[in-house]
């Protein structure tokens, strides 16, 4: 009959199909030693493939401009290269010229991972649902500011916060208006001593950076000022401060400050970033240079809850309104 060849062909295809299927099943069962729920693998450097695959790079990092722009560009460039090697993704550093610009860039998604001060970190995190503080230096849970004064002003070192009453009637400069160590916490310490901004001589200055604060007080433009203690110590060690013209009059009590904040889009890459930062090795010359720039021996993980006090002080000062 004319349909016989068709029936025979179909039968032959079925047999061949069964043979192929059977061979495939045997090979899969013999060679598959991966659990059914295993969806990630690790690269040679330990980075999760899933973490990098889920993030559509490049990873754009940034930082508040709290020091000289050339210093920031060089050192964050070194960090970007390090993170690129560790994470297996392209990493770019984007500079900004103002503290508020770093917060805005993070808010609109132009930056994925930013090194913020305590105040700007809280501001940025509150502006982006799901953003988290993920890492800090070992020194950031016990951070301090130093009040400085010109040596020819007659202002003497003090023993406790009450001595800041001496700032009343003096010309005084903070750092950036959004700086935690150069404005927010110092203003709260002044208030504790009963000194408001109106009690200062004239309007307070806002130098824009810790380095500029030192320069202005050293030059006599302002009688006194306040800045990040880590930057002060670094500049003293470099010989960039003239002790005959400017001196520390008081170091504050500790508070939480600088930290990395990540946008939620990083997903699993957040953990890889923390691991990479924590793995910075002070015995490796290039990595030691990165740690030296940050004035730290290591990075450690952190949590957004650590900055609750910063948020409270910021709200009291009217600098946090979210």
Account of the protein in words:
The chain has 11 helices and 11 strands. The model is unreliable at 1-48 (pLDDT under 50). α3 (69-87) packs across α10 (285-294) and α4 (99-108) runs parallel beside α5. A 6-stranded mixed beta sheet has the order 2-1-3-10-4-11, with helices on both faces. The protein is globular. It has 2 domains: 49-141 and 257-316, Periplasmic binding protein-like II (D-Maltodextrin-Binding Protein, domain 2, 3-Layer(aba) Sandwich); 144-251, D-Maltodextrin-Binding Protein, domain 2 (3-Layer(aba) Sandwich). The longest helix is centred in the first third of the chain and has 28 residues, at 4-31. α6 links the parallel β6 (172-174) and β7 (205-206). The chain is α/β, with parallel strands linked by helices and 322 residues long.
Helix content: 40-55%
Q: Can you identify the CATH superfamily of the largest domain?
A: Periplasmic binding protein-like II
Which percent range describes the beta-strand content? 5-15%
Order of helices and strands: HHEHEHEHEEEHEHEHEEHHEH
Architecture (CATH level 2) name of the largest domain: 3-Layer(aba) Sandwich
Under CATH, the topology of the largest domain can be stated as D-Maltodextrin-Binding Protein, domain 2
Q: Care to count the β-strands? A: 11
Give the overall shape.
globular
Task: Classify the secondary structure makeup into a structural class.
Answer: alpha/beta
Please give the alpha-carbon distance between the first and last residues.
85 Å
- Low-confidence parts: 1-48
Query: What gyration radius follows from the Cα positions, in whole Å?
Result: 28 Å
**CATH C-level class of the largest domain:** Alpha Beta
Note the total helix count. Answer: 11
Largest sheet, in brief, is:
6 strands, mixed
Mean pLDDT: 87
